[in-house]
Each structure stands twice: as structure tokens, then as C-alpha cells.
Amino acid sequence: MRQYETVFLISPNLEEEETTKIITQISDIISKKKGKLIQEDRWGKRKLAYPIKKFEEAFYVFFHYEGDPNIPFELEKRFKQTEAILRFLTVKKETRENVRKKRKGVPVEEEVAKPAEEQEIAAPDEEKVEMKEEEEIVTPLAEEEAVVLQKEEVEQKEEEKVEKKMEEEAANPAEEEEIVFPKKEKSKNKEKKEVAASVKEEEVVPEENVEEATEEKEEPEEEQKKGEEEPVEKKEEDKEDLSSAETSKEDK
Amino acid sequence: MAREQRRERGDRSSFRRYFPPKRKVCRFCQRNVREIDYKNVDILKRYILERGRISPRRMTGTCAFHQRRVSTAIKRARLLALLPYIED
What we know:
Largest interface: A-B, 26 and 21 residues
CATH class of chain B: Few Secondary Structures
Number of strands of chain B: 0
Order of helices and strands of chain A: EHEEHEHHHHHHH
Helix content of chain A: 55-70%
Number of strands of chain A: 4
Strand content of chain A: 15-25%
CATH topology of the largest domain in chain A: Alpha-Beta Plaits
Oligomer: heterodimer
CATH architecture of chain B: Irregular
Structural class of chain B: mainly alpha
Number of helices of chain A: 9
Number of domains of chain A: 3
Number of helices of chain B: 5
Distance between the termini of chain B: 22 Å
CATH superfamily of the largest domain in chain A: Ribosomal protein S6/Translation elongation factor EF1B
CATH architecture of the largest domain in chain A: 2-Layer Sandwich
Distance between the termini of chain A: 87 Å
Largest sheet of chain B: none
Number of domains of chain B: 1
Mean pLDDT of chain B: 83
Helix content of chain B: 40-55%
Shape of chain B: flat
């Protein structure tokens, strides 16, 4: 036995009696073929998204039923014969749960759908409940451990990275732009603009650059949260060395 | 599209900063939806563009599994004139 859902649109110019007649005829067909009507839904007249046979409205009826596959065939015949029906659609409803399982290797569908119900009805034993509980307890622990381990690893790596960066930057602070990737793209675009800016600001004392640069490197995360002003200043200051070199090239 | 978003985001705080594009997540996966019905038009309307086309995955961020369901649902809804084929 399969579940089907049939929708059909009845033309709006019919009177109420006629529409009810058509609907009862169709429900009769289902009952004659030993189908079981699960749900009947009438939306009433509804505006169409586009005109069908020059009608702007239509009467929507939904049948949700269970039965042999020859029922939709029979309905289709009937729909084609009657002119008052503008459109129809039958869809197979899938009864079994088709939830997507994230874990691979677990045999799914039929095990989940049918035996679970039978077990519950037949024997609601305590053993099975206990089993489930144990499984539930065991798996999250393992996951938590794994997560913790991963976190630790990540932290270690991050620390190492930070140390490396510190060393590199201490060696040559001017090259910071090349190491930090997010600034790369924009710096290329803005070099031209900042050339002009930096030429004006060349009077700034170079000692400040070094101090501020070192401070900002120690706290890379806070940089992002801070406002717009600091990174802008920093970039301009960092690029003074480079940009001055570029200006000299351009002059030549 | 991605470029436009990035530009907007840049404008909000400052035009100098680079922001990595925000990772989109499938909305159906978040709510653990398994079937997408062709009858609830309100949800499906979010997944069509203004001209009536089905919006691509790269814009909405739906996963492949749910995109398939969305597209079939939209096509069924179109047949029943719940959604337009073309909107002008």
C-alpha cells in the first residue's frame, strides 16, 4: 500500500453544487478501489500565479489517500475526461523517514522506520531502554574527548605560529604586510593613494613606528575588534618605508 | 554576488579592511527539515528570484540535498500555478 497525494484545480465559473459534485465523484472513485482517504483539503478559490485557460482563479482540492497504484491511474482518466478540471498532479508520498544521516556506515531507513514501532508496541522492556541510555552516554563522551584533544592541538599550533610570527616580525618589521594575508589585497589597491598620504606624513618620528608595531603584533585578535582608526594608522606607518622607496622609483 | 556583499560589509566599518565572506549555512539543515512540501508557498517564495527563477545554491547557501528538494517542490508548485514560471 502506498500513499498518494492528488491535487486538482476546478474552474471557478462552476457553481458550488457542481464543484462539490466533482469532488464527491472523485472521492467515490478512491473508495470504490478500496483506497483509504487519509485527509481531504479544500483551499477554496485561490488566485493563480498565471492564467490557465484564461481563468485567473481556481478551486484547489487536495486528496491524501492510501491504496493500490491503479487508483491514480483511474483518477487521471477521469480528470482528462472532465473539462472543468484545469490541472491535476499526483505525488507519491514517502512514508518512511528519509532523514539525512550525517554519520556514514550506519544502516538507516527500514531499521529506523518499522522495527522501532513494533518494538515499542510489542515489548516496552527496560533492557532496551537501558541499552539506549548507555549508547547515548558513551558516544558523547568520546566525542567530547576528541573535541578537547583537537582543541589542544589547535591551541598548540596557534601558539607556535604566534611565536614564529613574533620572531619574524622582530627581525624585520617592515615586511609585516607580506606575512599577514588579509591586508595584501587591499594594500595593493591603496598603495597609490597612500603614497600621497605618506609623503605628507613623512615628518612623523620613526621611533614611534617600531614601538606601536610591536605592541600591535602581540595582540592580533584585538586588532580586528578595535575601531577603524588604529589599523589605518598602522598601515600608513608601515608603508612609509615601502612607499618612500616607490616614490623614489616613480621619480626616476 | 560575493563581491557585492564584501563591498557592502567593507563600507559598513571601513573601506580599508578585508572581511572574509561569511559562511552560509543551509536553513533546512539547521531546523532538521526532511521533506519540503510544494504546498507551503511562503517558504518556497524565498527560494525564487524576482523573475521567478530558482535561486542558485551559491546565493542561498542550501546544501545539495535540500536544494534538490527545493527545486522539485518549486517545479510542482509551478505546475499548480502556486508559483509563476516567469514573473514580469
